[in-house]
Amino acid sequence: MQKSKSNESTKACIINCNKLIILFTSAFILLLASCTDINFNSSKWKAWNERTGKLTLRWDMCDDLIEEHLSIGMERARIVELLGEPSSDCIQSDCDMIYELGPCRRGINYGSLYLSFKNNRLIEIFKHCG
């Protein structure tokens, strides 16, 4: 009878250890997946091609781009010099430029960077995933 209790206790311990291993492994994978930001590089940004490049390159660079390289009031021409031609553009000066960012690491969604201008000056920056 005592051996049976010991076996049950050992099995329960093994099950709990397996659950902990799964929990810590999942947390580690989530942590790695969230640490994907890389420094913005103008040459790599311009050369990016969704078909031939690292799919998430632009998405991974975007936070650094917004925080360190773009600023409200920048001239439209300076942004095109920095990022290359946008994926979508308007003729008038009060509209958005859109840069495709590729997959945004959230399921199957793709990201875009929207830049709004007034009088050829940047007035709004919006990163979108969806």
UniProtKB/TrEMBL annotation:
Protein name per its UniProtKB record: Lipoprotein
Organism listed in the record: Nonlabens dokdonensis
